[in-house]
Write a structure and sequence with these properties.
heterodimer; A: 345 residues; mainly alpha; ABC transporter involved in vitamin B12 uptake, BtuC; 0% strand; B: 315 residues; 13 helices
Amino acid sequence: MKTWSARWLTQNRGFAGAILLFLALYITYNFMHPRGFSTAVLVQNSNESVAIAFVAMAQTIPVLMGGLDLSVGAVMTLTSCIASELVNGSPAQMLLGMFLTLLSGAAFGAMNGVIVVYGRIQPIIATLATGAIAIGLALLVRPKPGGDVDGDLNWALTNTVWDFVDTYGGNPDAGWLAPFANIPVPLIILFGVPLLVWLPFRRSVTGRTIYAIGSAEGAAYMSGLPINRAKIAAFTLAGFFAACGGLYLAIQTSSGNADTVQAGTYTLNSIAAVVLGGTALMGGIGGAIGSLVGALILRVISFYFRILDIDPLLQPLIEGVVLLIAVSFGAFRTLRVKNRLELFR
Amino acid sequence: MNRISDANKPIVIASVFVLVILLLGTGYTLATQGTMPLFQPKYLLQQLQTGAFLGICAAGMMMVILLGHIDLSIPWTLTAAAMMASTIGGPWAIPTALAVGLLVGLFNGLGVAYLRIPSMIFTLGVDTVLRGLMVAHTGGFSPKDEATPLMLYLAKGTLLGIPVAIFVWAAVSVVIAGILAKTGFGRSVYATGTREGAAYLSGIRTRRVIIGAFVTSSLCAAIAGVLLAGYSAKAYQGMGNAFLLPSIAAVVLGGTHILGGRGRYVGTLVGVILIVLLNSVLSIMQMPEAYRQIIYGAVIIGMLLVYGRNARITS
């Protein structure tokens, strides 16, 4: 009889590996950094990780279904352009702007879902096309890079809790605040949104159906699970997470930029982060939190280039080799297979 | 009226759509300028010449998609082949490019067939590594080396009044279509793409088939790289980026199933022509980039709604 923890480990081997790899990389990084383990370093690192982590979580949900969403990067770009237009003015206007930004991302995701479910087009191709549409819309919203995001908001959300309270007129030195004062706000956003959105969703019938579809769609259908609802929900949630990334990117950079190359890079990195985080591309295994860790691993690797004296020209090469080696760990499965037929699925 | 078989339906519909694009574009030019450039052979040949790069990439991509895999390493395989060719120069330029393609294809194939890493992620990693190698090789700038005269001729020269690039595309097309329709390897590709386990049990060496398809894809990307470097007189950073997604779109618009096993080469050809003409009509109309992207996406969705729908999974 296995204990609870041993069973968890066998079921989440990829996720556990990702956490260990991330901790090892990040703690080593802090030891090597001249100002390691300081709030400033943590704030800067978490700021740079938010957008890619959200896009990676967005990608996870269609992947869990055995699909793929090639539009997540484009939706992030579109929503960051929308946010760069809307998030300013009075606090109420800013909140409305943020709400509309997230709503537009979710709506775009829902459109993806409707096309996939009722159009019965393969997700990878449908989202390839809607990704182009998202870039087109982003160019309409913001033909030239730029934007006007509230400066206070930018400062408050990209620094520590202390600065957040300070910006909005509270007493940052209040006693009850002391334990939290040095936590970066982006870190709270990064872990708060998935905790509030993803974990409850995963436990719902719709969330479980997504896993069931990824394991065996026919069996899920025969069991009477709400397939169509789950698929549309999966893409809607993907759009929502991508919009969270876009909104944060716009606030962080105080601007929007309808950049096709950036959108493509984010989409491709999101796939890499999903795989690193222990989610199977075939579907059915994994989760958004794993992809969050996967995205953090990708980011930490790029942080190393700043402290190590590596020729900048070699950086893309090292990034690529590390990515290739990391995904090749999945190949150990093939060495353990006894019957070669198990390889073909 | 004759019934059109399922395999040919996408090709027929896509061809009709190509005609619709031509007619709409001509209607526009007649109304605004009183000319009809879209029906002038010279203009069409020029469009096909620039379409040759996409066409050759799509031909290779089709082999991989028929297996149910995908090759995301095309952009930097193309760029690496072009850069190495112009670096080596002289008579060995084109063999060097092909050797780059062969090596990348073998590496992709080994990773996907033997290590069983999903092609989506493995080829993505290979693409990143190739980019890194080329940045290290060139220092991040466009290399100064010029394309060789042979590369220039292949890309820009004309033979019997027809651009040589179109002949190259035609040659690649004949080879790929021949492989798919006439050889055992071609049949193995369809069988492996339909159900790899069954193909393996029937005695097909599916791993070698996968390697073969990835080598074909990378070789095609390398040829496209040679042509593109000749067309622009030299290789440059990111020259392949514009070909990845359109080549997937062209293959799928031509009726090849993205999960593998089904599709005809003629379809891919029609798909490429569709995308090339759509782009040229939109540029004649001086359509802003924003609307271009939207129309481009809407056309892909619209076409697939007509003929690319999957069966419902109910058991």
